[in-house]
Amino acid sequence: MMNKRRVGTDKEALAAGYLESRGVVILEYNFRSRRGEIDLIGRDQEYLVFFEVKYRRSTNQGYPEEAVFYAKQKKICRAADYYRYIRHIPMQTAIRYDVIAIEGEQIRWVKNAFPHHY
Questions:
Q1: In angstroms, what CA-CA distances link 73 with 14, 25, 36, 67, 69?
Q2: 117 within some domain
Q3: Which CATH number does the domain housing residue 62 bear?
Q4: How confident is the prediction along the chain (118 residues), in pLDDT tens digits per residue?
Q5: CA nearest neighbour of 107 among 13, 27, 36, 31
Q6: 98 in a domain, yes or no?
C-alpha cells in the first residue's frame, strides 16, 4: 500500500495534467508557508487560481470536494494572501479558489468552490 504523501503527490500531478490540458498554466506546485499550504497555483485566463486537490477512492466517506471545510478554506486564503504579498501580485488581480475532486479515476473541477475568507 502506498503512503498518503505519495498518493497525494501522484494525485496532484494528475490534477495538474488535467488542468494543463484545459488551458491552465501551472505556476506553483505545493506552495508552503507558515500560514498554510496550497496544492497548485495557476493562471486560468484572467484569474490567478488557488487549487485544492482532494482524492477519495470511493464516496463511502463523502465526496472529495466536501472535505474542504471552512477551517481549510481559511488556511488556503491566508496562504494565498501571503503568496500574493511575496510575489508582489496587485490586490486588484482577479483570484479564484477552485477544488479538483478526484474520486477513483473520475476528476471534477469545481470552479469558485468557496469565497475568500478574511
A1: 22, 22, 10, 10, 6
A2: no
A3: 3.40.1350.10
A4: 457 778 778 899 999 999 999 999 999 999 999 999 999 999 999 999 999 999 988 777 888 999 999 999 999 999 999 999 999 999 999 999 999 999 988 999 999 999 999 8
A5: 13
A6: yes
DSSP codes of every residue in the chain: ---HHHHHHHHHHHHHHHHHTTTPEEEEEEEEETTEEEEEEEEETTEEEEEEEEEESSGGG--GGGG--HHHHHHHHHHHHHHHHHTT--TTS-EEEEEEEEETTEEEEETT-S----
> CA 88, CA 99: separation in Å to the nearest integer?
24
Whole domain around residue 106: which residue ranges? 4-110
pTM of the model: 0.93
Distance CA 36, CA 108 (A): 24
Cell numbers linked to 37: 499550504
AA letter at 22? R
